[in-house]
Specification:
single chain; alpha+beta; Fructose-1,6-Bisphosphatase, Chain A, domain 1; D-Maltodextrin-Binding Protein, domain 2; 2 domains; eight-stranded mixed beta sheet; five-stranded mixed beta sheet; 7 helices; 17 strands; 24% strand; binds 2,5-anhydro-1,6-di-O-phosphono-D-mannitol; binds magnesium ion
Length: 336
């Protein structure tokens, strides 16, 4: 069978779904994928590329920036500035949106990303990745500001993530299911390796940072206690726990074999609104998970329906296998 490259996949998508996959959107995805190949190469070189360690600065969230965080951000900015497909970019690593320089044409899309997710895993050779989300620039807006990015996740036109792991993979949705591509390093191109990823509705695997247990709210305490009680508890079966600490890797496991991923708002992070960010973590992952048949809530409502108030807003996250996400959401709502 002939291998289907990302380029071919996108061209075919453009023919089949011209209403969504416009030529500019196709170019945008290709440019992001190309930038991710460059990031993948830098990650792969590791200590040999002198890319490990901190730069000595903090980002808008007050987190220490790693060399690879900053480098990945620059790679994505430079790749996306000149193509004419974007109106502006925003990133976890920048306080404010990055305008397209005046010397370049502007397009109708907004790109928002976490250039390198799983920062705490960079220096220890554990999987990390890039998360991105594409929105339409509001009509008539020539100089987008942060406010123009504040659109609910249901308005995303594309979402994707990469995992720089044993192999580099790219997972993508444009609202017509989820496809997975694997980087063929010899050819230098992403090759389609799975169409229509589906998350099983039921699962016996969960992911949560259990060191926060003492900070959890009662609905999360109850849900996890029931899972941990195993076969002799109310759930009547044993559950297994996995926590990579890189959302991209934890979500990819769930896309592959099911599971539920949780980062609830708890007493430790309540003043910040949560741990994970809405626009470039929860929304793109929520879109992908829903497109694969799973569910994504903040504990009470669908993540994609939450109207953002700020570019770097945080939110509680419960996503993955539908029946488990619905159960823990019902515990929060008091309906179960
Ligand atoms: P980052 O974008 O700065 O890397 O932070 C997000 C990451 C997620 O990938 C992961 O799920 C979470 O932070 C891990 O948090 P913890 O440190 O509680 O394990
Ligand atoms: Mg992140």
């Amino acid at each position: 069978m002939t291998a289907i490259s990302l380029t071919r996949f996108l061209l075919e998508a453009q023919r089949e779904h011209p209403d969504v996959m416009t030529p500019d959107l196709r170019l945008l995805v290709e440019v992001v994928a190309r930038a991710c190949k460059t990031i993948s190469n830098a990650v792969n070189k590791g200590a040999l590329g002198n890319v490990l360690g901190n730069v000595g600065t903090t980002n808008v969230q007050g987190e220490a920036q790693k060399k690879l965080d900053v480098l990945s951000n620059e790679i994505l900015l430079e790749a996306n500035e000149w193509g004419g497909h974007l109106a502006a970019l925003a990133s976890e690593e920048m306080d404010e949106p990055h305008p397209i320089p005046n010397r370049f044409p502007k397009g109708e899309y907004l790109l928002v990303f976490d250039p390198l997710d799983g920062s705490s895993n960079i220096d220890v050779n554990v999987s990390i990745g890039t998360i991105f989300s594409v929105l339409r620039c509001p009509e008539g807006v020539r100089e987008p500001t942060a406010d123009d990015f504040l659109q609910p996740g249901s308005r995303q036109v594309v979402a994707g993530y990469t995992v720089y792991g044993p192999s580099t993979i790219l997972v993508l949705t444009f609202g017509r299911g989820v496809a997975c591509f694997t980087l063929d390093r010899e050819q230098g191109s992403f090759v389609l390796t799975q169409r229509d990823l589906r998350i099983p509705e039921d699962t016996s695997e969960y992911a949560i940072n259990a060191s926060n247990r003492r900070h959890w709210d009662p609905p999360v305490q109850r849900y996890i206690a029931e899972l941990d009680a195993g076969r002799t508890g109310p759930r009547g079966r044993d559950f297994n726990m996995r926590w990579v600490g890189s959302m991209v890797a934890d979500v990819h496991r769930i896309l592959t074999r099911g599971g539920i991923f949780m980062y609830p708002v708890d007493a430790k992070c309540r003043d910040k609104g949560g741990r994970l960010r809405l626009l470039y973590e929860a929304n793109p992952m929520g879109f992908i998970v829903e497109q694969a048949g799973g569910a994504a809530t903040d504990g009470r409502q669908r993540i994609l329906d939450v109207p953002p108030q700020a570019l770097h807003q945080r939110i509680g996250v419960f996503l993955g296998s539908r029946n488990e996400v619905e159960r823990v959401t019902a515990y929060h709502l008091g309906t179960a």
